[in-house]
Specification:
Order of helices and strands: EHEHEHEHEHEHEHEHEEHEHEH
Structural class: alpha/beta
Shape: elongated
Radius of gyration: 20 Å
Distance between the termini: 47 Å
Strand content: 15-25%
CATH superfamily of the largest domain: SPOUT methyltransferase, trefoil knot domain
Largest sheet: 7 strands, parallel
Protein name: tRNA G18 (Ribose-2'-O)-methylase SpoU
CATH topology of the largest domain: Alpha/beta knot
GO molecular function, one term: RNA binding
Number of strands: 12
Keywords: Methyltransferase, Transferase
Pfam family, one: SpoU_methylase
InterPro entries: Alpha/beta_knot_MTases (IPR029028), Ribosomal_eL30-like_sf (IPR029064), rRNA_Methyltransferase (IPR051259), SpoU_MeTrfase (IPR001537), tRNA_m1G_MTases_N (IPR029026)
Low-confidence stretches: 23-30
Number of domains: 2
Length: 268
């Protein structure tokens, strides 16, 4: 049975999990060290629970307890449920809860790269991506368009940061993912052809039939401002571009990923 706790002091140490969530740099450092992440909104929390994530504490407006959060509270067992008025929660978190519910959860143990991609045929690699909105959007497209795994390099935004989880609509819990280094030779050793999504004079069109025919293909996407490094591009089997009109040179990386996932999906 969950323990309903009315917030009396927002500086109480047990509330540190939820404090000042808008301080992005602070959270990106603290969450991995604490072994926690924050899921926001009923749908996202339900997906996290469904996919095996362990809840540690809930934070919600008082009116949600007997409303849309009731089924979540029942599923979470004996954990603290901190509650108060909207203004109190905003003072605690640093922003107004648009969905009214937050859940602190234990971070899952991530698999080794080799185990994650052993049976996969289409995977995505995110290198140095710093915008949590883009990372979340890419996970959502990956889930919708049957990308079987996502790998993120050390300089990439944490897929489990609060905004990434929210933008992904919880699909970050559905698409298998893990961390990898910047050496992509491991992909080649696992039988993958690698395709760098980048602007280059030598790039082939994403419509090239050889790409779609590859049995195992890894699609690599780079940082928002500068794209993939030249060393990674040089190490890939293909450099791939999406044909553009009206003198537009490129798409936002999240939009480009959706186009690439659709075009190069496994057919049949």
């Amino acid at each position: 049975m969950a323990r309903i706790i009315e917030i009396q002091d927002i500086a109480a140490p047990e509330l540190a999990l939820f404090a000042h969530l808008t301080e992005v740099q602070l959270r990106s450092r603290l969450e991995p060290e604490k072994g926690i992440f924050i899921a926001e909104s009923p749908k996202v929390i339900q997906l996290a629970l469904k996919n095996g994530c362990k809840p540690l504490a809930l934070l919600m407006e008082r009116k949600r307890i007997k409303g849309q959060a009731n089924c979540i509270i029942e599923r979470c067992g004996d954990i603290p449920v901190y509650t108060g008025d909207r203004e109190v929660l905003a003072d605690l978190t640093g922003y107004r809860l648009t969905r009214g519910i937050l859940c602190a959860m234990a971070r899952p143990v991530l698999p080794a790269v080799e185990n994650l991609i052993m049976q996969a045929r289409r995977i995505a690699v995110l290198d140095g991506m710093t915008d949590s909105t883009n990372v979340g959007a890419i996970f959502r497209s990956a889930a919708a368009l049957n990308i079987e795994a996502v790998l993120v390099t050390p300089s990439c935004c944490d897929p489990l940061c609060r905004r990434s989880v929210r933008v992904s609509m919880g699909t970050v819990f559905q698409v298998p993912w893990t961390h990898m280094g910047t050496d992509i030779s491991i992909l080649h050793s696992m039988g993958f052809k690698t395709a760098a999504m980048a602007l280059s004079m030598n790039a082939v069109s994403i419509e090239d039939k050889k790409l779609a025919a590859e049995k195992k293909l890894a699609l690599l996407f780079g940082t928002e401002g500068y794209g993939l490094s030249q060393s990674i591009i040089d190490a890939c089997d293909y450099t791939v571009k999406i044909p553009m009109s009206h003198q537009v040179d490129s798409l936002n990386v999240a939009a480009a990923s959706a186009v690439a996932f659709w075009q190069l999906r496994i057919r049949g």
